[in-house]
């Protein structure tokens, strides 16, 4: 190693694709996490469409609605209702729909 230190860079997008077959949804701004109610279930699992609101980040009287960047099975929220989140922090994940997706 050359002795330099590197810091992880958090993504500034609403969806990041990695080596795993999931899309991680991140908070665009800092605030408090608000979980939005599910819209659709299929075979006992929640499914979302691309562009569907899934969580909201509130900052006082302002709020940012975070949408799913892909359609697929909603994996879950990473955090608890009302919990503070930082900009770029993962807040949810989605498994993009495959051949058997609803």
Written account of the structure:
By secondary structure, the protein is an all-beta fold. It has one domain (16-96): OB fold (Dihydrolipoamide Acetyltransferase, E2P), CATH 2.40.50.100. Helix content is 0%, strand content 45%. The protein has strands at 16-17, 23-26, 31-35, 40-42, 45-48, 53-59, 62-67, 72-77, 84-85, 90-96. The strands form two sheets. A six-stranded antiparallel β-sheet has the order 1-2-10-8-5-4, with no helix packed on it. Strand 4 and strand 5 form a beta hairpin. The model is unreliable at 1-13 (pLDDT under 50).
Features:
single chain, 102 residues, mainly beta, OB fold (Dihydrolipoamide Acetyltransferase, E2P), six-stranded antiparallel beta sheet, four-stranded antiparallel beta sheet, 10 strands, disordered N terminus
